[in-house]
Amino acid sequence: MSVRAVVMAAGKGKRMNSDTPKVLFEVAGRPLVSWVVDAVAAAGIDEITVVVGHGARAVADSLPEGVRTALQSEQLGTGHAVATALETMGDVTGDTVLVVPGDTPLLRPESLRGLLDARGAADAALLTAEVPDPTGYGRVIRDGDRVEAVVEERDATDAQRAITEVAVSTYAFDGAALAAALVEIGNDNAQGEYYLTDAIECLARRGMVRAVAGADPDEVQGVNSLAQLAAVEAMMRRRILTGWMERGVWMQDPARTYVDASVSLEAGARLYADVHLEGGTSVAAGATVGPGVFAADSVIGPGARVWYSVLRSARVGKDAEVGPYASLRPGTVMETGSKIGTFVETKATTIGAGSKVPHLSYMGDATIGERSNIGAGTITCNYDGYEKHATVIGDRVRIGSDTMLVAPVEVGDDGWTAAGSVISKDVAPGALGVERSPQREVAGYAARRARRAKKKDD
Ligand code: UD1
Ligand code: CA
């Protein structure tokens, strides 16, 4: 006997008011359906069929390799969705079919295992939750352990609506019993849909359906609206951050810390408030990030210090310093102990070990060697209107303040540039590049001006 899973993910999600298929909305940087598929896989189930329909191609593309899909071209209800999956799965006699909705990302693998174990010899087991406000959910009608039916909100009587134990679209079925029940259900209900919940009623009439109560209501919270998406996001964020804190990551204020599921942090990393870490970002031990940092797909090395800055596909080396108010664009590489300071923008630039770009600069397509200093206000003029060109700066170079480096250009090791120079020719190693007109002095200028102004007034 094997367990085969069906994930229902074909619905449009009307209540989201969006063209994006509901299950592709993201929580902690991952689509809803990916969370569910991962939970099913983590419960030890190898065969997973995802029912796709609305935005089928995009949903299928978001799935990991090895996950099967079944196309439900018209979304005629959850019962129809599972029937569509079964058509592609061949004979399920003797198998257990686990059914989960694609819109409950907080569902834990342990809860799925618990449901599968609790089914025993029953025709079906369904996960239920006791919720303070059951609005919108199917209500569980039961007699002791035995479920009699699940009644949808719109089809429920007032008395049934008062029931606070709800179905959460998560079921373990005996394969043959499920297949038989799905043939019998109709669509004579408020929504004109084939309800999977009717298969429960059908099985309950003939055999045994067991309720598995006690699911944590947070864990089974579905996403049907943007408000619910935000609520689920907040819970997932809590879960992720708690996990990192347990592993030794210090956070000043988890309520103001945003860490995607794909991010990795080392014990001893420190996060101040208002930090957003996304994509493949990692933060090493002893690094301090924030307050006020957005970092996507960036590597922050051990002992680095980054605050009030934006990093995209950047690498911050060991003990390097960034900010405040720096923008590190893709391809920025900072070697050990280097610095990018206040109001500095970098792109496709390597800053060598111990080198500094402390103030008000733009470094694009540049390579800076070791222990060089870039004076305040220095700009790499890397774009001639047609193409981008490279600037190469050697080791131990002193670039004077307000130098314009007109690329392609190179300043050799130990070279200097004079402040305010427009450097359009290479500077040899150890040389000083100066490009300035000699300063003139106009003596008595102030007095002359004053006389002129006085004449006008007379
Ligand atoms: C469903 C249940 C309800 C339960 C609630 C809890 C039914 C009839 N109702 O209602 O008892 O309390 O979930 O989460 O089952 N889907 C398809 N194809 C379809 C219709 C839906 O794949 O034709 C998918 C959706 O994409 C979604 C899932 O099934 O991921 C559930 O559908 P949804 O419309 O959200 O059902 P609810 O109204 O929440
Ligand atoms: Ca739902």
Q: Looking at this structure, what is the CATH superfamily of the largest domain?
A: Spore Coat Polysaccharide Biosynthesis Protein SpsA, Chain A
Small molecules in complex: uridine-diphosphate-N-acetylglucosamine, calcium ion
Q: What is the highest CATH level, the class of the largest domain?
A: Alpha Beta
Derived from helix and strand composition plus strand pairing, the structural class reads alpha/beta
- Fill in the CATH topology of the largest domain: Spore Coat Polysaccharide Biosynthesis Protein SpsA, Chain A
Query: How many domains, as an integer?
Result: 2
Shape: elongated
Which regions are unreliable across 5 or more consecutive residues at pLDDT < 50? none
Mean of residue pLDDT values: 96
Radius of gyration: 32 Å
As a percent range, the share of strand residues is: 25-35%
Helix percent band? 10-25%
Largest sheet: 9 strands, mixed
- Helical stretch tally: 9
Tell me the total number of β-strands: 41
Distance between the termini: 109 Å
Per CATH, the architecture of the largest domain is Alpha-Beta Complex
